[in-house]
Amino acid sequence: MKKLIDFKNFINPIWRENPVFYLMLGLCPLLAVSGSVRDSLGMGIAVIFVLVGSNFTVSVIRKFVPSHVRIPVFIVVIATFVTIADYSIAAFSPEIHRNLGVYLPLIVVNCIILGRAEAFASKNNILNSILDALGTGIGFTIAILLIAIIREALGNGTIFGNPVFGTGYTPFLIMIMPPGAFLVIGFLIAIKQGMTRRRKC
Amino acid sequence: MKKKEVAGGIIVLFLITGISGYLLAQVYKVTKPKIEEQKRIEEEKINKEIFPDGVKFEEKCKDNISYVSVYNSDGEEIGKIFKVKTLGYGGYILLKVGVDKNFRIKGVKIIHHSETPGLGSKITSEKFLSQFEGKTIDEIYLKKDNPEGKIDAITGATISSRAVVDGIRKFLKKVKK
Fold it and tell me: A14, B21, B83, B115 — which has fewest CB within 10 A?
């Protein structure tokens, strides 16, 4: 029988089964927004909020929803939470809202969220679903922050807008452009795989 | 699939959508005044940034172009602020440009844009926008486009830079006529 609360659901997705480095989900917003650390943090928090909200709701309604309409129902739930996040960020932090631009509404189609709703929340109880959402969201945030820190530091010479390399540094411009995102994520996935694979043997 | 199952699916989907719609309407009601307040504060802040010595800002409209007239503490009109819309790399760029009486640029601020984050979004940076200060209309070209130009494009974001520069120049020329 499944446990009522299983903290593995929280711990696992943070690093070992990280949504980005292990499941390879949600790469589109990750690649697009990770050019600056501040925007990435905003994106991460928005994703955590939407994930927790949608996982919770999906878990609550999982027994009433017939399986053949579950995907549209999940999408409606997710879209609702994304819109709430969109309005709230516009109301309280217009600057982050402006920088995230179109990627904020696009959280709707972030596969992490639908993936967790379908694969986890629709089959597990409320507490475990929330734990899973928090873990997955934090895992995503850690991934996007890691990439953003590397890209912003190398490509712009700054972190959170503060210079880190002194004045003589010539920015490595490609890092801030789309190819930089692919390069960084490729290296990070390789490093992550190298670390976790070896441990298994 | 049986008729009953279909009906069940329709009812559930209908209910969920209805609840979501109601919830969103409530959230919208709560956040709308805040969002508008933020927008207004921001507009005022931008006007004040362009004209630090402006005291009164009055919205006006002439020949289908709306603008803000700026008055100093003596009640004298010291300049105007226009809203300019121009097509950038990722969509429309909305910006405000302040000019003094002789149509010399006083300041440029970007209000809204959808340029590439980290690249084109640098059109909002002080480093780029401060170049406009004190320039006449004929000097607002990119250096690489026109020998008279005095504006440096942003590295890696020529299209966005050009959109801002050309948008401002064309608009001001039209208004000046």
Answer: B21
